[in-house]
Amino acid sequence: MNNGPTPGMSDPEVGTAHQNSEAAAVKSYKDHLLHSINSAAVGEDPFFHTYLEDVFPHELYDCIRKYMLEKKYGEDVQDRLQDNPAFKNSRFNLEFNKDEIPLVIRALFSDPEVKQALLAKFYVDPSPALVNALEIHKEFEFFFTKAGRFQNIHVDIPPKFLSFVFYIPEKDVDPEDELRNGTILYDKKLLPHYKARFKANSACVFVPHFSTYHGFSSTIDRDVLVMFYINKDELQNWRTMRKEVGDVPPFSGLLDAIEAKLKAHPLIEFSKSEHRLQEEKAACLVNAPDGRVMRPDI
User: Fold this and answer.
1) CA-based, 20 to 30 A from 159: which of 9, 33, 110, 286?
2) Which residues does residue 92 pair with via DSSP β-bridges, in sequence order?
3) pLDDT in tens, 41-61
4) Pick from 220, 36, 233, 214: which is nearest to 130 by CA?
């Protein structure tokens, strides 16, 4: 991504030229990303979601993939324990990472215009205050899953306002494996819907709520980047509520927190309907801690 100094330029000139070049590159990346967001349709089945294709310019995506593989095969990967008690996945967290690649990704998705474009696909008239209040959650990380694994069905925690899974296959993927290794969206009967594909430079995005049941199964090595927009104040409120109420049946803390979020920030999906909101709350299938839905048949 860095092209180096231009011969004959003095040090201050080199610095200014480099900064201008970097700024121009980030601007072109943002324009490309906005085109991807604005071009993506919103699917309504089994819940509102969107699937972004060609997310990053190809030269940036290639750099992201190369960087990810360096971390995947490096010595600093950590265990990722939350996907299924039967196994451990691997992860490389980017929360405090100051390398160029995570900084560029963070800058792009922290841009107010990008956040506004994404939120507008799901929320009714997202306000500037909401846009400014959201930031990237600490679970901003690459995670690596080997073939033959299955993630527990779950809903994400209420303070998460948008959930992202970026697909970064290490190798070329055939169409069947693209279909089977994307994020699985489950309907209210917990039947799987394959609306996303494990396709290079693509992403699945949705708003966590009462029935955003999702997970994955892997038929091949599955390398992804996960990211969430979160409201820090609501995250603290959620932590306090969990301590007071507990993460135990009937999981009223989870349900009340989702309800409060959606009342304050209505979704297009629910058409600002209080009746629909209460129906969804009553029908929520979460039956285990951490927003999980445990099925006796699997």
Assistant:
1) 33
2) 142
3) 999 999 999 999 999 999 999
4) 233
